[in-house]
Amino acid sequence: MSHRTLLLVARVAGWLIVPLYVAGICTTFLLERSAELPNQDSVDDVAQLVGFGAFAVVGALLVAKRPTNVIGWILAVVALMMAIFRAGGAYAACAVATRGQPDALAVFGVWIGHWVWGLILALTVIYLPLLFPDGHLPSRRWLPVAVLGGMGTLGLMVLSALTDTLRLDAGGVKGIHFKIDNPIGIEGLGLVDDLPIFGVLNGVLLIGVVGAGVSVVVRFRRSRGVERQQMKWFVFAASLILLAPAVNYLPEVVNGLWFALVLIAISMAFGIAVLRYRLYEIDLIINRTLVYGPLTATLVVLYFGSIVVLQRVFVALTGEKSTLAVVASTLVIAALFNPLRSRIQGFIDRRFYRSKYDASKTLEAFSTKLREETDLNALSEDLVGVVRESMQPAHVSLWLRPDTTGNGEQAD
Prior knowledge:
By secondary structure, the protein is mainly α. It has helices at 3-35, 43-65, 70-99, 104-131, 143-162, 196-222, 225-238, 244-247, 252-275, 282-318, 324-352, 354-372, 376-391, and strands spanning 165-167, 179-181. It has a two-stranded antiparallel sheet. It is globular, with a radius of gyration of 30 Å. Mean pLDDT is 79; it is low at 408-412.
């Protein structure tokens, strides 16, 4: 395909991706409403639709702007497959709820839902990290990781597509569960989870997942310049996944919001990194996150802790609770905000931004000396030393303009 043809195809695809995703989601919604399916529109469903909607938007933008980079195409394909995945399951559920049995199109929708999840999983957790940010493997040495991940995914997809029984709940629709015969299924090939080869294929797939994670670490350590900033965006967004064990114990609303936030953050990180728009702001975002994350947690603990303590004091003194505890706690938090922020900022700068911290201290010391020193030669040497230490240029020289006053005039 020529470059001009690729650009034309990418532009057309970029305009169609988001409308197709929206059409798929609207179709799913209308089918579920017409069948009056229970337990729909849960927090998880909404979070999933919003999160993969971000995949569709960013994917469409990258396809149109960077058609030679496969990252945008992968994001778009994942979003569209999710829309098809849900629409197929919704149609099958609607057919069963209204007519009592699935038709050919409903069977086809359930069949797609049986195997497409494996492809979505592989593209999301293997090939996106492995090919980020330029759409290529870090080197030819990582080709076995890509191949093994593909083999494991393909094996699970084939087994899922050829199982003798299809389940509607594999289509992602809650409330209705039934089983139908697979027209192209192999007799006796039951659930994939029950097959001995399932563990082998899962192991191969796991090698691909772990290998993709290792490739991110290796690429991050070796990256420099622009690529370093691109990797920072991805690592920062992906670090939200580490909160999963804690989020699982929180209410469903919080869990759903966190899941949507992860998908949105990762898709935005891909978009910023590939397009290189505001690429270098990641350092500021990381700095603010490191500062205001612990600051917020500390203030919340102090706030509620002080309320509990003060309420007990009021109960001990007056025999009843008082709103003064809330007012006093609020005033204490307001007074502690700036001192705590300054201390945490100083600790973060010393620990993670040492060069910036040392440069700031050097400039601060020079500013103090500048107010006291009167010897121009000494100041010149100090100025050169400060520039060399803070900016670290390849060469430093100082040129002083000579006194140009003449004809008997004196400089003021």
